[in-house]
Fold each of these.
Amino acid sequence: MTEKVATASPRLVRRAPVAIGVLVTIVLVFAAMRVWLDWPNILAGTTPGDDFAERYVAHPRLAYLHIAPGVIYLLGAPLQLSRRFRTQHYDVHRRLGRVLLSCAFVAGLFALLFGVPHAWGGAPEAAATVVFGSWFLACLALAFRAIRRKDVRLHRRWMIRAFAVGIGIGTIRIWVGIFEGVEQTLSGGTTPGTPDPTMFGIAFWLAFTMHVALGEWWLRRAPALTG
Ligand code: HEM
């Protein structure tokens, strides 16, 4: 008797790049907003009015050694994961891979160094950062080990897991937006509510848990694309 393996529908497979594009765009918009809001203060040595931005201005090295390499990694990773790109430009894939893997490691390390002591969402955010930041770094390390052993299939699977966590940052912002909208509706206000630190921490857990699960789901449902 043959075991029936469930696979992702072709429509879903076609939509995955669109979803990834949307999430990467969200991350880019928030990264650009951070630069726009923080750097005038960092350069002038002034303190911003809101306590969310204050941490980025007070610890620019920690914050931007997370954001800048993270953005480079997120921009390059979709190309690396494309089967067509890998087969047509294998040398570029290898060279770019070294750069992007290094960027991802630095981004993950500084996610811990900035996100744990300076978490705006307090203990829930700091805990989520330890759990998912460590998972992100572990996936990268295992992907590196696999390719050193010339196990291309395993390398690709760990890279997909790392990427699933990385784009989770976009989904955090979606959850924060939903919470702000709900707060606005409940308070009857006309402008979105300010993100509450507890909501921010919850958004971290929801988004990253979803993304780890989605990564596993993708690896099971689209084996032809990931194997
Ligand atoms: C790899 C791609 C990543 C990119 C491009 C990225 C980008 C960013 C950006 C733009 C911010 C500023 C947040 C905002 O203003 O909304 C941020 C903050 C943060 N990121 Fe990442 N990130 C990435 C991965 C990760 C990972 C894997 C973790 C670990 C779980 C993480 C943890 C954090 C933390 C803790 C903060 C600080 C949030 C705060 O309290 O303000 N990031 N990241």
Amino acid sequence: MIDKVKKLRAKSIHRLKGLPSDKLDKPVTYWISEDRLLDKIGKEFTIILRSKGCSWALGDQGGCTMCGYIKDSCVDTINSGNIKNQFMRAWNDKLEEIQNDKENYILKIFNSGSFFDDDEIPEDLRKFIYEKIANVSNITEVVVESRTEHLSRDKLIQMRSELGSRHVEIGIGLETVNDYIRLNYINKGMTFKEFLDAVNLCKQCDIGIRAYLLFKPPFMSEESAIDDCVSSIKTLIDMQVNTISINPVNIQRGTLVEYLWQQNRYHVPSYYSLMKSLKKGIKTQEMLNFTRIVCDPSGAGSRRGIHSCSKKECNIQMKDFLKNFVLSQDIIYLKKLDEEEHCYCKLNYHMQKMFN
Ligand code: SF4
Ligand SMILES: [Zn+2]
């Protein structure tokens, strides 16, 4: 499998050669939208930076089976100055809007790899970014992402001390609490023990954890994906992880998942299964006393993303159920789908489950 992942990855990397130089100083994208903060609804300011790419995807193991983020990278040519320019472009464009806003913000800085990998974001650039954030009082939460091997006590302590009392989370792609699935189906190259060590290190440095769960990895049926997600949610809530971010698989280009999907050997998850997992995983409102659950599926409603049926209105309604739950963190919204009239595909889904 690793050979196949590497072969597909090599094709994606080859396509990256010759990226126009004007892209080097532009972030992949950035936006502001409504989001769930720790204890209320607020806004997110998300910036996706283009770095040299995830070391795991570029290395001998070829990266994770569902991840096509390498296409947002710039393997050969990008340098720290370019990334600084990207950050400043997004920052300068939105700073006034943020400072004039009464809402609090969660700032998410993603680089489709690891924020703490010095090859992607060097230390002086990280420091520069912290100093910018420290001056904006209504940015009350900050999230960055990293693989565990790039975390260190020094890096976390530096971040903690620069960002004052802000709530800080490190997003880690745990994907599932099950080592077998993570190592063999996702090719993550990280054990649950390594995740636990990272959680402990972050706790010692007063930094929170945002655990990403992958909903329906390849080689899994819909039913086993639900079981896996439920057990992961329960375990992480028991651990009092600060945030669980659930990411249903979407078919990204140049990945093993795309290859399987094209051969009809992988099907994207159903919205019904996702809602079922949330309902089974979060039985009581008290379970969310210490953990927030977020989910904003990429490509939702499309052929390549999680969907219910092909009807636009049906998918919009599903998205709304999910969004209402995430913003309110009220489990009442997870039951709405059962209680309210919905599209014909609800019956189809349940019939299929009965006969499978
Ligand atoms: S999911 Fe994360 S660790 Fe895996 S290849 Fe993509 S960026 Fe790298
Ligand atoms: Zn439908």
